[in-house]
Amino acid sequence: MSDKSVKITLVRSIHGRLKNHQACVRGLGLRRMHQTVEVKDTPENRGMINKINYMLRIED
User: What is the pTM of this model?
Assistant: First the structure.
């Protein structure tokens, strides 16, 4: 499972969001709107993705 990855794109702004949601965005390596990053599919990353899924576009 650790060799798999997930592509995520930030599609909503982090301004005005909860601090821990902003921290999840930063923790996933996203810095700006419409930026796409590829992260490993680990339980830790999945937890952050699930918490802020309303702000992301997710591609497996």
Answer: 0.90
